[in-house]
Write a structure and sequence with these properties.
By secondary structure, this protein is of the alpha+beta class.
Amino acid sequence: MQKTPPRLRKLLLTNMLPRLIALVVVLSITLFAAAFHFVSQQTQVLQQQSVEGLQQDLSYIVDDTTRQLADLAANDIIINSLVDMEQRGNYLPMFFRSLNLTQAPHVEFALFDFAGNQIIDKNWQAKLPDNLEKTWRQLTLGESATFSSVSKHGVLISVPVLLGGVAEGALVMYVDSLQSLLTSYPRLTNQLVSDSQGLVLFSSQPTLIAPNTLLSEFNDSGYSFESVPWQNLTLYSIEPTFAAYKSVAWIGVVLVAMIIGFVLIILHMVRKTGALAENTLSNLYNDIKHKTRDGQCALPSSNSEEAQELADIRNAFDKLMHELAEASLSNEQFSNVLESMGDMLLVVDKNNAVLLSNKRFDQFCEDQYVEMSDIVKFIVQRLSNDTSNELTHFSLTTGKDRFIRWTKATLTDSFGDERGTMYIGSDETERRSLESNVQILTHAMDEATVSIIISDITRVGQPVIYVNSAFEALTGYKREEIIGHNCRAMQGNSTDTKSIDKVRQAIARREPIDITLLNYRKDGSEFYNRLNLTPVKTNGEVTHYIGFQQDVTQQRLTEQYLQDAREKAEDSARSKSSFLASMSHEIRTPIHGISGVLQLLEASKLDDDQRHYLSLAKFSIQGLLHIVNDILDFSKIEAGQLQIENAPFDIAQSLHAIENQFALLCDDKGLTLQFNNELNNINVVLGDEVRFGQILSNLIGNAIKFTDTGSIEVHTKLETLHSNDIQIHCKVIDTGIGIAEDKQSTIFDVFTQEDLSTTREFGGTGLGLSISKQLCELMGGSISLESKKGEGSTFYFTVNMEYTDEALIAPILLNEQKQSTETKKLKILVVEDNDINQIIVKQHLSQHTTLSAKSGVEALEALSKMKVTFDVILMDCQMPQMDGFEATKRIRKGEAGDRYVDVPIIALTANAMKGDKERCVDAGMDDYLSKPFEVEDLLKKVEYWAKSKVST
């Protein structure tokens, strides 16, 4: 039997009563919490007011008392008493007896003079601690300032008695305790004052907390505290917690009454609401029931008291909602399926009217230039005889054709009757584009001239999956012979195993590699294969490698040919260098003999004709030596053996020496030589003095050679670049024959002069300007010219050097000064295999004692056997039996005796190639003199090294 549902009124009471009780409990707790918070706030406000009142009382008492005391100190009686010491006894005692500034029972006053001595007092018995006594005296008497102190020692206030703005004395008031000073004031709560150690100085209720006790000893349970700092003290308000809450207990009674009234009202409202809802729902149910049954509304019955109606309504509505929900869910699922289709869907009836279409079809129609009805008509017509067909549609968005494959199907109902037709469209545009791209890429790779190979590294053995036609042409292997296999067949005995290991390691690390291997074709022929392997990733993982192969056999052969050619060129350069060194020695040796004989002749007595002939011979020798030096310099530059020195020199002195060198030549030709120097206070520079002078001398020499009348100007300017770097700008201007404009572009070429007539008329090798140009470039500069035929030429050149300290050339000047002084007679050993050179050197050194040897062997025997000790050794480098290098090494080792281990050895050599000077130094020689040399240079070096030996 079905259970009868309860009445609505009972259900409302049953459901609402627990919630009502919970609501009342929560409300009660909230109200009591609010009341408690209110009481706490009121108590806190009361205590805050109390402690602030105490703070104001203290400030008022101290400030007011200080003010009154200051007024007394300004009284004429007090001031006169400090001046009129004889009469003050008549009026000052009476004045002090009348003093009373506070309500404290015991107050002490005292007047002190500027020295701190007490003049008069009232009840003064104060025993102050030394620090407090010292403080008030220092501030009031010393600094004329007011002082106040509240502490366990009592209350002390001192004010200065001012006379002319300076303290002449002090008026002091003292109360023995703060308790006696504050007792008479009314209090809102219990109040305390304690110092920094917690000692109670004042208590408004001494029975609760006694003065002069520690606050920490008080049991504060059941009390509420509020504190505030004041100067070096702490002010407290203390109130019993029970007393605070007792004053607002009436609030709790009111709250309880309010809660009870609230509960009763809610109960009454719930009952009334239940009855009203019950009657309303009953009438509604009856109306719905009658309307559903016969379509007419029945009058509501007001006297029905049944509660069954609510359950009936719920059941009817539940059933209805269930059916509606199922229908809605089916429709929603079907709609979702249609919209989620990747293809387009179109459903038409028998009259080709659209029954249904999905979102993709609607979007497709929006991309067409005709209406949906025309599109439908077009599709129906084209598929009238086919179930599937690919149609072409023009896209407005892309401006290209879209390829749609439409499939037709008949639509039937549940009884099998035909209701219409469904058309499903699949977009084939992207697939066709991909197929076209793949065909293009495949064709391009197959027709590429570079060999391409692709392998799958995810499969065992990493087989080849693709090769192009170029691979077949390169290796001789057909596609079917290599696809499915790896490339090990292309390796052979001569293939470098280390290179194979590098390829395997790169593949294992999934890295690209570019390497050249020796591979073998199918017919066994070798070829050098430059292989570039690149990893190919699929979904972030390397799955394949694509390789590009190139036959670089010809390139390898070319590289080998170039290597062989380079080695041959280096051998040729070494042979050339050796030949030049030998030729330099062979040419310079006879030139040195001729030059030496001419210098000896010059030192003898000659008439004017003989001296003229001698000067012609010396000029010819200088010309010949200049040509030899130019050829050697050119050879050095061409072989890359010319080095630029980096030593300090005085540029002003160097320019002056060049000017003196060419002054006589200019005088002989009737030319004016003018030097203009702008050195900007820079005298010493760091660079190659010889090469700088060589460039400038070449240009000046050419100017003199090609100028018959007029003048030659030399302009030199120093420009600071940055830091210590400087650039030297030189300009040589002549009024000579000039250079034709069409010849100026080649004037700096090797072996080049303006024309053959110039060579015939003026001579020269055509190397001077070429060497000067290359020297400028080696020194970081350049050279150029401006010239007009028949008017003269201007040559410009720049070289880079560095600024340096003048102190660096001081030792050089000092050495020159030493050499200029008279030197004692020296003992010199001349080691020279050429008889003429021996005679010349010995004649040049006729003022000294000389002994000669023709080889290194003879030199060692002479040094070891002769008792005389030689001061200097002049050593030729190239000699039979033992050359000068070996002889020097043996002397330094002590084979000629310990006395000659450090003897000065000066090299006399006709060699002038790169490394000759360094070779002399490495052998142990102290200095270097190249043949042919001037007698002055020989004497300077001999005398310098002889003095150096003496000083050491």
